[in-house]
Every structure is written in C-alpha cells, then in structure tokens.
Amino acid sequence: MRRRSASPRLRANDPAYAARNAAYGVPAAMNRPARIGLLLATVIGLIVAAGAVGTVGLVQVGAAMASIGWLGMASFVLWSGGVLALLGMAWVAVAPSETADRLWLFVWARTTREAATDILPFSQLGGLVVGARTLAAFGVPQPVIYASMIADLTTEMAAQLIFTLFGVGVLLLVLTHAAVQQGLVPLALGGVGAMVALMLLFVFAQRPMLKLAGSLGARLLPGSVAAMAAVREQLDAIYREPRRVIAAFLFNLAAWLASATGAWIALWFMGSQVPLWAVLMIEALIFTLRSVAFAIPGAIGVQEAAYVLIGPLVGLPPATALALSLLKRARDVVIAVPALLVWQIGEYRRVVS
C-alpha cells in the first residue's frame, strides 16, 4: 500500500487546479473551442466506427455473439473488464503521488483510452489523448499524467515483447513444412524485429524527445520549456523507484495473458476445444500484428486475416477463427460505446460549465 499524499485532490474546474499546474510550469487547461472540437471529433468517430462494424459485417458480428449465447457474451465482457482493471493497476503503479484509492480513476481512464483506440478512427494517439483528458478532468497534474503514461507504455511494450517471444517460440515448435505455414516464420520474426525496434526507440528516445519538444516549444509556446521540464522531473522520479516500474511491467504482462485467456474462454463457449497454450500463441501473434499495423484504426481487416491464417495451425477452423475475431469486435463495441458516451457527457458538462 502506498502512502497517502498530504496534498488535497483538486478537480479541473477548481481555481486551485490551475494554480497548481502553473506551479508545475504547465499551460492552462484545454480551452472551450478545443474541447468542442474534441467532442465533435468523437461524435464523428462514433459514426465512422458504426460504419466500420458494418463493413466487417453487422450480421456476421451478431451471428458470432449468438454462437456463444448471452451467458458466454456476458462472461467474455466481464473478463475483459478484469483485463482493464489490470491495465489500470499498471498505470497507477507508475503515477507518482497517486494512491491505491485512486485506482478506479486510472481503470476508468484506461477504459476510455482503449475505447478510443479500438473503435474510433484516431488510432493509438487519439486514445492517449482521451485517456489523458480523463485523468486531467479529475485533477491529476499534467506532468504526472504524461510521465506516468510514458512509463506505462514502456512497461507495456516490454511485457508485450516477452509475450510475443513466447508466441513465436511456440509457433516455431508447431510449424510443419507446408508452404503457407513456412511463410509465417519471416512474418512472425519480422513482427518481433519491429517490436524490438519500436521498444528500443521508445525507451532511449524518451528524454531526448522531451528535451527537443521543450526546445521547439520555447520558440512557439510560452511556458512549454517549464512544462517539459516538469514531465522529465516526474519521469526521473518514476525511474528512481524500480519497484513501481517492475510492478507496472508485471501488471501489464498479466493483462496480456489475461486478454489472451479471454479468447480461450470465448472459444470454449463456442464449443471449440483448442488448448490454452495454442490460444496464447495465436493471440500473441495477433497482438503483434495489430501493434505493427497501429496506423490502421482497430486493425480492421488485419485482425481478421491473421486469425484465418494462423488459426488452422493449431486446429482452429477458419470459420471459427473468423467468428472469434468478430466476437472481439462485438466485445469492443459493447464496452467502448457506453464508455465513450459517458466520457462525452462529462466533457459536455465541462464545456457548458
């Protein structure tokens, strides 16, 4: 249990919140036009997301949900909620001055962050913005938000790399000499290489990029140098506490494993008897391909093709593999749409207040 901070918790609309951010060297909160623009972009995104689900096949998505029944779908969604709780634990673990009683806030912020990433046409960057806005609305200082987000992303990528290496190792053990299956080896190894390169770039470029951003901002935005310095200070404080970083890594690794186990649970409700180790392998490779295809919102098409290609290696028929992918799309909509609507209501109230 972390020690409680002696400082009071402030909301974004509290005058003391602006004063505290000013003390950190952080610019004022998002102004009303920017908030309105973000709200409009999210509304448009929800409409586009509905169209994307229609493109995948609304009837097919409904059929996938029907294949596991209401009990199976409810279990799948509840399990996914547990995964979000693990992700929230990882984030709060690297958030300086935040205590265990604020876990719910980081779980909620991670939920809105994942929702925006999964179904809105903003890709990863938009999800990060929405997650940051969620925390800022409850008075978390912006340097803490951005520093903890950087550390959380770093540990998440490290955990994913371990998970991916497991998937590739299992893949190499089960592959036969069929031409199609042989073609998966360079694809999988290429994904691992891309993951390693991205992680190394992200880890070693953190401080230089913050310094560069501060230098560029000094010529464009007053106060940006102090803001970047505050983020660097918080990031250094996080890395001086290795227990926090290790805890975030372990929570993120548990989240990767739990998410993959959720797919195995869904397959069980579908009547498929694929062993857990095989599903973990499939999911590790799918997550890797999704990460490499980060520029494609929701990895539409990439996820479906990967399931159909990889599933048969462990006895998962292409039709069942495709149904699993569609089921995950349905799960994303069931969780993400209500989450984004609740977030929208909160943003709207702050716009009109």
Radius of gyration, Cα only, in angstroms? 21 Å
Portion of residues in beta strands equals: under 5%
Could you tell me the mean pLDDT?
Answer: 75
Low-confidence stretches: 1-30, 212-222
Spatial shape = globular
The biggest sheet amounts to: none
Helix content: over 70%
Tally of alpha and pi helices: 13
**Alpha-beta content class:** mainly alpha
Task: List SSEs in N-to-C order.
Answer: HHHHHHHHHHHHH
Q: Total number of β-strand segments?
A: 0
Q: For the terminal residues, how far apart are their CA atoms?
A: 36 Å
Brief account:
The protein is mainly α and 353 residues long.
Task: List its traits.
single chain, about 350 residues, disordered N terminus
What would you note in describing this structure?
The chain is an all-alpha fold. It contains 13 helices and no strands. Helix 2 crosses helix 10 (242-269) and helix 10 packs across helix 11. The longest helix is centred in the first third of the chain and has 62 residues, at 32-93. Residues 1-30 and 212-222 have low confidence and may be disordered.
